[in-house]
DNA sequence: TCGCTCGGTGAACGGTGTTTACACAGTTGA
DNA sequence: TCAACTGTGTAAACACCGTTCACCGAGCGA
């Protein structure tokens, strides 16, 4: 297993230390404080040494982005464990609530990952942020979609202009779910469902970004009721059975 | 009227030139390119001279923010002129579409104003971004709320925890509308309506930010159908009469 | 053991925000 | 009219930044 030579292990350790230090600076003092020299200072080395590990500050920030997404993933996934697999709506709610909590607790990281203009993405390779979060979301949604009795999208027709995009995305969803070992019955993953994922994501992101950036049209003392209301409305619109109150799991009082 | 002395006029001119140059740099090369020295260079001045006009780079950026909001205001308001005052839903749609168009055409400005973490706002004075955009939105919403026959919010009860905040905001809305010369009949501005404004804003911002930042869970070729669908769904949920197709006003084909 | 790669250094270049001391035009007041 | 003052600009300097370059030494593989 440990194919790594001593050198490789040392290198991996330093790489991790660098990203961790960068992350700490980001959290503590914001994106602009993530400085090569500050990182080096913290690690007891000089700034040019960092170029042995990352091509540029920008590249390092990208790596930090990936770390953040991995952490987000690691925080969202266990949020599922607390909810029975037979309560799909409860699982979706749990993930949404966990995402909001994470964003409010890590505004700088949220901004870096979710509110920076699209990088040009030099050709091959998709943006990591999308894929990482997509991974988590897909994982959750996968469980929901596989439990057909729980998810009955209304039969609203989908906008015709969106059809091709949705079909393409459905294929990607199928692949991702297959990778995770989830087989999707053939007729199950309707375009309606894919379309609903989009709607959830728009509202989830909208609310959370507004709350993190303090950009509600007026200062809300507590946005949590608004968030909870949004979730239940989404659930109703999505055709979830309204019987289950979806186990609010004692949201810590802010 | 021209109480201003010669000096004051010159000063105002230079201030405008500075902000305009900063704005051009922002648009052309992003926020990090807005450099005191670059601005000074463009103006044929030295950097320290800028400190005669703004206390710091940060203060200048705030001023640029206000300029941007003023421009946004100036672009949204005339979007109303094209739509009859007797078509309130059409007016709301017009403003929403204009906001999206503006954001897509000015991503750097959008990011600066709407996707930066809340500034601490040193005590007095609210954040300008909020108030500026609020101003436009309020102006539009004002017309809608004053035409009661067009706006019939469902009688869903509002989350109890939101009640106090909504009441406070309703008061601010009343004041703002009164300033604009719009008298709101007493029983008209229900809490339901205020709550719906929040819902519109969450979805509008969510969609536009995701589109500008390229953070949809998969690459959409064209997000406009999704946007249009969202608007109509919002209209239905808000209790607007669905008869009027709300005059799509020939959206230019991207 | 020889040589080579890897990870580090220090110096340097050009850029940045910001402060300071200074100069000088234009306005203001006696 | 002439002095004082105010506003606007400058140059120099400080501390910091990303990045490049030449160098160097320890440790590893042959």
From TrEMBL, chains A, B:
Query: Which sequence positions fall in the DNA-binding region?
Result: 35-54
Annotated signal peptide:
none
UniProt KW keywords: DNA-binding, Transcription, Transcription regulation
- Per UniProt, residues of the HTH tetR-type domain are 12-72
Q: What is this protein called?
A: Transcriptional regulator, TetR family
